[in-house]
Amino acid sequence: MDVIPTEIRERIRYEARVSGLSGDSALSIEAVEKRRLQIWIIAGVLVVALSGAFAISSLNGGLEGNRWLRPGVLQIALVALALGFCVYAIEKEVHLHRLSRLIVDERVLNSALSKSLQQHSALMAAGRALNSVLDLDEVLDVILASALEMLRASAGSVMLLEGEDALRVVAVRGSETPRNARVMMGASIAGKVARTREPIILNGPVDTEKFPGRKKRAVAPDSAMCVPLQHRGHLLGVLNVSASGDRPFDEYDMQLLCLFAEPVAAAIAKAGLYEAERAHVSELLEAGRQTSQFVASVSHELRTPITSIRGAIAASRIATEFEQRAELLDVMERQALRLAHMVEEMLTAAKLERSESMPLLRRVDVAALIRMSALDSQVAGRPVELTVPETCEVRADPESLRRIIGNLVENAHKYGATPVRIVLDHDADQIVLSVIDSGPGVPPAEREKIFDRFYRSDTNGEKPGVGLGLPIVRGLAEACGGSVWVEDAPGGGAAFRVSLRTRAADEQEVAHVQ
Amino acid sequence: MSSKPKVLIVDDEPDVLLTLRVILEASGFDPALAADGETALRRIDAEHPDLVLLDIMMPVLDGWFVLAELAGRAKKPKVIVCSAKSADVDKARARDLGADAYVVKPWDPEALVQTMRDVLAAKHAGTTDNLRV
Fold this sequence. Notes:
The complex is a heterodimer.
Chain A: H1 6-18, H2 29-60, H3 71-131, H4 136-151, E1 155-162, E2 166-173, E3 182-184, H5 188-196, E4 200-203, E5 223-231, E6 234-243, H6 251-318, H7 322-353, E7 362-365, H8 366-379, E8 385-387, E9 393-396, H9 398-415, E10 421-426, E11 430-436, H10 469-479, E12 483-488, E13 494-501, H11 503-513
Parallel strand pairs in A: 8-10
Antiparallel strand pairs in A: 1-2, 1-6, 2-3, 4-5, 5-6, 7-9, 10-11, 11-13, 12-13
Helix pairs in contact in A: 1-3, 2-3, 3-4, 3-6, 4-6, 6-7, 7-10, 8-9, 9-10
Chain B: E1 6-10, H1 14-26, E2 30-34, H2 37-47, E3 51-54, H3 63-71, E4 78-83, H4 88-96, E5 101-104, H5 109-125
Parallel strand pairs in B: 1-2, 1-3, 3-4, 4-5
Helix pairs in contact in B: 2-3
């Protein structure tokens, strides 16, 4: 492909024509040298011939009878002829010299432009490949395949930023670097490139003093390059390539890798957005599924008390005995309260979700409150054993605390097994209220999920409830400045623990702020 | 054998058991109670009721287990499933397991009693294909 600018081509044609060479065919340095030799041979032969003629004319004293061919005139003519030809030869030499320089320039340009074209076509091919995939793993695979092919490298890896101060290997090809390996910012070659955002090229053994933290390899590469991956000014990670044997990387390779790093970073950023979007859609679908499940649970939970109330009303119309009617009125009251409690739970969950009506925190004797809640639970048929001190003050909302304890005790009876215990531990700074059951405990994978709204560990819906009890506990505990979590109780069972700051710790903090 | 049809009410909600007992007594039935599937099967074996009003979601053994257990028997009582589960898939499952009718909670007391009478009448007429939902 002709990639030489027209101006150089025109100048070559001109110089070739002036030098007596054909400008149409491809000119070579050899042709120029040949032409140069021809000119100087002719020039030499002519000078020798003229010198001979000059000498002969000097010896013979010129041709007699011809005043124009007298010795003086003939000698002057011979010298002028020799000088004229020398000027001609020198002028040709100047043009030939220019021509050879232009031909060298043309070759350099041709080579450079060809290389640049190769780079661009390789980059375009890589760009097309990158655009054809969206999934991050596939993008990383294409990146490494393209980089290795483009640079004829033997190994490569992509490391992405993890947090603020570390890089993690997310894709590897042909290298012993383990996937998921972590490199701190500033450490080793990749860490240094990430920190300085400047590419590095290394040929030969790596100076470990220059790159502290670099691990020794079983087979060290002979040549390696590492470039930062940046998108819109943000560092995303680094791209490493290495080669061994007779393939040392040069500045052209580095330039190519730096150019490649731009679409690579854009593709990684795009894949990240795609992942985020996909996760968002999954979340929305999950939220939709949870909402459907919630609606199903609520309608199911509402049906049971309504059935009892309707049945009790119908039964009370036909009941003949006073005691029977009184019993049926109790049924109606109990089930109406159950409905009211459900509605209250849903409203509380909705308020906590919107962070509405934060409770007013005040001094509460949590030990006394636990004793009162235990009595309520006892009455509701959910007995608890207590291990609590005489008194223990926290800064909280008493109503929230009462509901936290009530929900945890109900949860322990519903999903755990008796005996259920409430234990209160405290030190100067915080109290930890534990509701411990004797059931199978909560599997580690579910220990966070059970605090999500509408989450039901019992997917068949065999247990009553709508999945709001524990989210309400967490919401109320956090509104009181505390936290809640679940763990295995020593000796088995689940231990739901609520931590709250003591009143003393709270007052100390207030004093400190003042 | 008593002249009143013997009905076993199976439900884990005490208030449902209580109200149904009052309604069924007043409607001319002879009710017996069970709060879980295990008790229900024991009472069916011991007392041979004519009809079982069966809840599905119960502790120990649920209503599906009771239905499956009864399905394999040559001589079995009529069964009306009374559940808060209203999905078609649950109704189809109950029919496949041999339930005679399916009533979704909250039921209308009068309609429930009528369904019970219809199911029992079908028994005497020898009709079996009468699943009501």
